[in-house]
Amino acid sequence: MTDDAPLPPEELERRLRAIGEERYHIHHPFHHLLHGGRLTKGQVQAWALNRYYYQASIPAKDASLIARLPTPALRREWRRRLADHDGDGEHPGGVERWLRLTDGLGLDRDYVTSLRGLLPGTRFAVDAYVNFVKYRSVLEAVASSLTEMFSPDIISQRVAGMLRGYDFVSAETLAYFTPRLTQAPQDVRFALDYVKREARTRAEQEQVMDALRFKCDLLWAQLDALHFAYVAPALPPPGAFRPGTPP
Ligand SMILES: O=C(O)c1cc(C(=O)O)c2c(n1)C(=O)C(=O)c1cc(C(=O)O)[nH]c1-2
């Protein structure tokens, strides 16, 4: 096999999984603290408030991808993701469910949704994701969703660890995560089959792997920003959320 020969699809999948093993945010020190019950309520609030922007931006990135998908079948598949996050008017979607999580932690909804307390690092990382999906190829955009291959593990760890570690967190507060345990594997099955089928050249396969690395990096960067602002050296930038201070 020359360097330019396409990888067998199963080898591409193995390499994608190896990228997650190495780079997924499950390995970030902030997550170890969060899941280990070692943060204060204010630090957990900072995590939830910042992550709201990620949750609220996911439907925007999915909607921009739908506009570029070439077939009804592809658009239908991606439309399901939009409904998962936005709800259908009767059942709440992920964005509303995340707000129930921030409610449960005692944060004011108007303050959370105003984004006034957001860290600049969160904003830049999340916007980079939305722009990546908007401007890169459809193949790279689909590939960038593949971090969801690794999310059921981190979600299971998080829910168990947070229920054990914090008396201010209840199963109801964390209800956001329950449907993700079935939605994420369904999303992944489709996206993984898609990239294995559509990345036909070695160059396209490299683009797929790079897209997954980029996505891991932007998830990591969000936790770096949180760690710097709220754990060590604990220097929240001007205007950012400060635990215990009224908005
Ligand atoms: O809890 C997590 O650590 C985590 C990670 C990810 C991810 O890996 O991108 C997603 C989610 N949760 C999530 O809840 C979610 O809705 C989601 C959508 C996407 C995406 O890229 O389209 N990732 C994720």
Write up what this structure looks like.
The longest helix is centred in the last third of the chain and has 29 residues, at 202-230. This protein has a single domain (9-230), classed as Heme oxygenase-like (Heme Oxygenase, Chain A), CATH 1.20.910. It is built from eleven helices and no strands. It is mostly helical.
Outline the fold blueprint.
Elements: H1 9-23, H2 29-35, H3 41-66, H4 72-86, H5 94-104, H6 109-114, H7 120-135, H8 138-143, H9 151-165, H10 177-198, H11 202-230
Helix pairs in contact: 1-11, 3-4, 3-5, 3-7, 3-11, 7-11, 9-10
Bound molecules: pyrroloquinoline quinone.
Organism: Siccirubricoccus deserti
GO molecular function: pyrroloquinoline-quinone synthase activity
GO biological process, one term: pyrroloquinoline quinone biosynthetic process
Characteristic terms for this protein:
247 residues, mainly alpha, Heme Oxygenase, Chain A, 68% helix, 0% strand, binds pyrroloquinoline quinone
Please state the structural category: mainly alpha
State mean pLDDT (0 to 100 scale).
96
The unreliable regions are none
The number of helical elements comes to 11
How many strands? Answer: 0
Tally the structural domains.
1
Strand content: under 5%
Q: Could you tell me which ligands this complex binds, including any ions or cofactors?
A: pyrroloquinoline quinone
